[in-house]
Write a structure and sequence with these properties.
It is a single chain. The protein is mainly β and 138 residues long. It is built from one helix and nine strands, in the order αβββββββββ. The protein has two domains: 36 residues, no CATH class; 97 residues. A six-stranded mixed beta sheet has the order 1-3-5-8-9-7, with no helix packed on it. It is elongated, with a radius of gyration of 20 Å.
Length: 138
């Protein structure tokens, strides 16, 4: 387990003497670094008329709309500026079509092509590039 900058490993009992403490920290610093922000995957089987809200914790997320038939409407809600971080990515994939998609991003600027519907097997990606500002990458 690698020590991620800005965090301390939980559940670790730290030794009392300075050299042992340094050795403990060194073991974390020399371990292979793990990916810091593993994207979460949220799966929605019931999409028709649903409001799907992105995670409010600043982590990357893949939202998988796993519905079997065309959905007439759905709403996708972006996290607020306070609940997202620069560099964060949101991915949206739809197994079947969504005829009318509403993207809610109150107080945010979404740059790139507007998204009003999804075709079957369509993937869309946004990334936060600055405070209140997201860009559509795909």
């Amino acid at each position: 387990m690698a020590l991620i900058p800005g965090t301390l490993p939980t559940g670790t009992k730290y030794p009392n003497d300075p050299q042992s403490l340094l050795d403990t920290f060194a073991s974390y610093l020399t371990a292979p670094e793990a990916k810091k922000n593993r994207p979460s995957v949220s799966v929605y089987a019931s999409v028709a008329g649903a409001t799907i809200t992105a995670r409010p914790d600043g982590l990357d997320e893949t939202v998988f709309l796993d519905h079997g038939t065309t959905a007439a409407t759905a709403t996708f809600v972006f996290p607020t500026n306070a609940n997202s971080v620069t560099g964060q990515m949101l991915r949206l994939f739809s197994k079947s079509a969504v005829t009318a998609l509403t993207v809610t991003s109150t107080g945010l600027t979404l740059n790139g092509a507007a998204l009003t519907a999804l075709t079957a097997n369509q993937s869309v990606v946004w990334q936060k590039v600055a405070a209140n500002t997201w860009i559509r990458l795909q």
